[in-house]
Amino acid sequence: MSEEWEMPTDGVTAQALFEDGVGLSYDDYILLPGFIDFHATEVSLETQLTRRIRLKRPLVSAPMDTVTEAEMAIGLALQGGIGILHYNNTADEQAAMVRRVKRFENGFITDPVVLSPRHTVADVDRIKRTHGFSGIPITEDGSLQTRLVGMVTNRDIDFEKDRTRPLQQVMTTDLVTAPQGVTLSEANRILKESKKGKLPVIDAEGRLVALVSRNDLVKNKEFPEAAKDPRKQLLVGAAVSTREEERERIDKVVAAGADVLVIDAAQGYSKFELETLRYIKEHYPQVDVIAGNVVSLPQCDTLIRAGADALRIGMGPGSICITQNMMAVGRAQASAVFRCAAFARERGVPVVADGGIRGIGHIVKALSIGASAVMLGSLLAGTAESPGEYFYENGVRVKQYRGMASLEAMSAGGGKRYLVEGGDSVQVPQGVSGTVVDKGSLTDYVPYLTRGISQGFQDLGVRSIAALHEALYTGRLRFERRTKAAQDEGSVHSLVSYREPRWGIG
User: Fold this and answer.
1) Are 263 and 240 in contact (CB under 8 A)?
2) pLDDT of 208-239, one tens digit each?
3) Superfamily covering domain 108-218
4) Is the omega angle on the peptide bond into residue 293 within 30 degrees of 0, that is, cis?
5) Can 15-105+225-388+438-489 and 108-218 be said to share one CATH topology?
6) 434 - beta bridge partners?
7) Per-residue b or e along 193-227, where b marks 16 or more CB atoms closer than 10 Å to that residue's CB
8) Which residues pair with 287 in a beta bridge?
């Protein structure tokens, strides 16, 4: 009789990895491989953002003024994630961004860049450098409130030597337009027949209301993974502070259609957060709330008991955050995510890992220790959809990226996140300002991230985030602690020079 074969075990469980009380970061451990019997394309990345909201992709953009405004929220929702709109603005401005996301129709540009006939060719050059396109509608006064009078495209200005020439002298006035209410398929037909690159959509008075781009139609025909509400509108979140005077902001962004609110506090274990959470739950029980930030079990327990629908985990691990150095308070991010996620899971509450994510490997690691989604700041800050203009720094095309506790951001309102009193003459920064490299459009970048995550799951032998978490909590998912030498060995080494991949190596 042959002996019954038993699979040997290797590595340690996550519980064993984190049990000694030493704070671990994502780089301090590695995951051991599992058995592969499926293709990476079969991996499902669907996940719970909150108790009630489900996403196709576990990607959330951070509510920072150099990361998430309407364009980012639209682009990420189309790719299956969700954007959280920042609050370094007025309540009306944030509510307007929410409405813009909810009104978005695939293929229609509802707030196109416009110029007036008095602008010059040089102004078109500037827009092309900043935004990467040059098909510009021309209205009577350069706003969407007046009649469309022309279009300027590359063919109008390519060979123009005088870049100070007014656009009224070079613009095309014989336009092909479509009426307000046109369907996307009909707009596509008109573009195809006219052989134009842009199709202006005008109302009965001839005012521009939208623009359809041939490039967008070709590139973005369908987004089957788009994150949408039951009315088929894109999902969007909004950040709110814990200040009592900001209750009006809550009212306005909810009225505008925000699907989820993020109580944006660096340290969420406070009476101010509890009062804000209580206000939202009493007045808007239909709106889910992500509460935080937290890193310890008492923090988690308090916010869950108060009604939080998800928790945001992280205090000081962000690339532009200096909270741990300045305040001597926080926790190593991997330890925080594992401890909080395990606690919250028993109570049916998902967690979002916020901060410390430098690449695909870190996303896989965060999900592997219990996070249901990851919040991204620096990884998304350099994309075309992030706020701000590109510029060159030492020959590299970059965008500004700043922490919400940097002096620059606090002067614009970011101090609300850190309980900074208005008018306080002494400000202690908990963040810095810097730059990040151009990453191109989310249309290319997010598929790259999600394919990489899927391949990581394949190497682990799991087909979904639910399966990953099941393997984590049953002990089948195995880990190994890494020394600094092991970390160096696992990265690029022993080369005189090398060319880094387009989107880096994490």
Assistant:
1) yes
2) 988 887 766 555 556 889 999 998 889 999 99
3) CBS-domain (3.10.580.10)
4) yes
5) no
6) 401
7) eeebbbbbbbeeeebbbbbbbbebbeeeeebebbb
8) none
Q: How far is it, in rounded angstroms, from Cα 250 to Cα 240? A: 7
* Residue 98, helix vs strand vs coil: helix
Q: What is the CA radius of gyration of the chain?
A: 25
Q: What share of the chain is helix, strand, coil (3-state, %, to 5)?
A: 35, 20, 45
Q: Which two tokens stand for residue 135?
A: 């098909």
**pLDDT tens digits, one per residue of 247-302:** 999 999 999 999 999 999 999 999 999 999 999 999 999 999 999 899 999 999 99
Q: Superfamily for 15-105+225-388+438-489? A: Aldolase class I (3.20.20.70)
For 261, half-sphere exposure in the C-beta direction (CA atoms, 13 angstrom radius) is: 33
Unique residue bearing structure tokens 């007045």: 283
Instruction: Give which of 241, 173, 179 is closest to 212, Cα–Cα.
Output: 179
Only one residue has tokens 């994309």, namely 383
Q: In sequence order, what are the residues at sequence separation of 6 or more whose Cβ sits closer than 8 angstroms to the Cβ of residue 37?
A: 461
The neighbour count for residue 230, using CB atoms within 10 Å, is: 5
Q: Which residues are catalytic?
A: 321, 417
Residue 431: left if φ>0, alpha if ψ -120 to 50, beta else—which one? beta
pTM over 0.85: no
Query: Rounded to an integer, what distance in angstroms lies between the CA atom of residue 294 and that of residue 237?
Result: 19
Q: Are strands 310-313 and 351-354 parallel, antiparallel or unpaired?
A: parallel
Whole-angstrom CA distances from 470 to 15, 117, 345, 353, 473 are: 14, 62, 11, 18, 5
Contact indicator for 394, 355 with CB cutoff of 8 Å: no
- Runs of H (alpha helix) within 79-118: 91-103
CA nearest neighbour of 364 among 280, 282, 477, 251? 477
- The answer for 142, left when phi > 0, alpha when psi is -120 to 50, beta otherwise, is left
Domain boundaries, the chain: 15-105+225-388+438-489, 108-218
